Task: structure prediction
Amino acid sequence: MTTNPFKLSPKALRKVGGISQLSYGIRVFIALCGAMALSWSIDHIDWIIPLFLGVIASALAETEDGWKGRVRTLLITLVLFMMTAFGVQALMPYPWAFGSCLAVMAFSLTMGGALGRRYAVIAQATLILSVYTMIGLNQSTHEMPIWYEPVLLTSGALWYGILSVIWAAFFVHVTLRQALASLYIEIGLYLKLKSKFFPPPSTAAVDTLRLELAQQHGQVVVALNKVREILVSRIGSSPGNPRLGRYIRFYFIAQSIHERASSSHYNYSDLADTFFHSDILFRLQRQLSESGTSCRKIGEAIRGEHSIDLRDSEEAVAGVLKSMAHLESEAQPVQWRLFRSLKQLTDNVLELQKELDKTPQLEDESVTDASLQIPQPRVTLRSIWGQITDQLTSKSQVFRHAVRMSIALTCGYVIIQNMNISVGYWVLLTTLFVCLPTFGSTRKRLYERIAGTIVGLVAAWSLITLFPMESVQLVLAVVAGVVFFITRTHRYVLATAAITLMVVCCFNQVSDGYNVIFPRLIDTLIGSTISWLAVFFILPDWAYRQLPMTFAEGMRRSAEYLRELMRFYQEENVDEQVYRHTRRRAYNADALLTSTLVNMQQEPGHYRTDTELWQRLVIRSHTLFNYIAAFSAHRGMLIEQSSNQVLAEASDYIVESLLEVAESLEQRHSVAFSLAEFELWQKTLEDCASDEDERRYFLQSQLQSLFGQLKEIRRLTHELQVQVHGDKVKALN
Result:
């Protein structure tokens, strides 16, 4: 099955525009070349540094909005840039006033991150531009007009902003296509990992695989959230766009695939033991693996706008159907009970393939109810203020980072003033780039920044020595600037080396570039040290402190998710929007728990407490979440009320038990656990007659699996509390 749902013209140009990093690099290249050409043509080579720095700051502030959204963002950015630059120029002669304002500005702008990633990016770029202004004023060899530095920096920012708006208007859905492509590729990786459970690996390898699966699930959730964020901005500006309607359908198909991929049915080991002589589990492994490959192909097709080929996964489906048909005719009576569980599993896999098969047929279509499918957040001054004030607490990561950044930059400024460091404001610039919200990410960025700076300085010294011609050095500066933006997300060492090379080449045009090589290294080391000390001592976000509350939140959201899902089996009319909202919160909580564990594993040894126990808890939590997700894959199967009572009460018991676990962690008291009551519920489910009702059997078997995971979660939670609180926690009954 090969069709082409993508028809755009001119095709080749659109493909270039659709390659995210390449298009980013092209915009930066045009902007830097334009700034260089202007400076050269009017014989003001000294303009090149502020213009280049303005371009860089504006590019760092670029958001993923459509062209209308980018116009609004650009206006906000330019106002902030102009106010900041003039403020820095006015206060630089007064160190006490400047230091105080720097602290307030750093805190206020960083707190802007509470409004979302878009504003966090703008705030970070504004702080960076303030330091660029300091560097420019500090390096000035003669008195300049008061407008000189602010106007040139803002002009460079405006020039890049205009290019960004034009690009967004011409390549309307480039960012959305890139995000969708990444989403399908991440789902494909998740399916590849899931396929390794068929047939199940050894007991020792299962937990490792489950932990990898949980971590990849977090990546899928991040990709889903990014696509949704972009769709929200697009729907607000052009809700009736036909192509947008198709991309919304791609998003919902990805959600459905993810929902089915994250589902778990019964115990895979029991299925493997029972059907040891059949090839069905190997068929399922191939099908899931090929589905993962198909997801990758869909992602590449969306990115490159070419046809989608799903023949391999369709052939794998045919193999599963043949194997199941043979097994059904040959199944022994003792196998029949688990055969039904196997059939539910294969039905889910087949439905997943049906979702994949929808993608080649998608055409442009207007979606008049797009805003209903993806509700738009209501933005008012009150809601904005509420978002910020809600984060004004020491428990908020945004608040902690704002305080940390404010103190770190102020300390850096005090060091510069007292040590009289040449080109000292690079200390602040390094702090801005290196000091990140978590210790693990800061440490990683610190090593990369130092290594990249050393490589860049060696390269700069070599190149300006080999090529003393001004024109060649300017070309090197432009190329280095482009390399920085292409690589800054995934190859930060190379990106740092490139921006260091650009800085030295630019400074060599207005002064002696050799004189900034050693100060750049010293400033980088000082700024990195300040960042490390800040993230270690100032309101540190040690993950081991966050894990109990994060785990409690995960249990609470899973309980709400299960409660909402059970309504599909008991009621005819269920609000789909409420369900989606509950599901999204549950998925986000599960992903946050995994990422918090990963952060803890990157922290110093004495802060990595109970790592093995937490790994087991995270694995159990994600496995429980997988069993709950299976209810979503089969939702809508109403069960007769007479047969429903026991199952409804069992699900209510699980929900309440999960909420009790959450509350025990939040209130720091022991987990109440009645083993006799627990076993009674398991026996009640075991004795339920369900031979004639497939829907009821599905609910019964999934609830039994949930009981198994819940028992382990409560046991491990109690074990954790005993380790933390010792004798203060009572033993399990």
Observations:
- The two ends are 59 Å apart (CA to CA).
- The chain has a mean pLDDT of 83.
- Strands lie at 2-3, 308-309.
- Residues 543-726 form a domain with the Methane Monooxygenase Hydroxylase; Chain G, domain 1 fold (CATH 1.20.58).
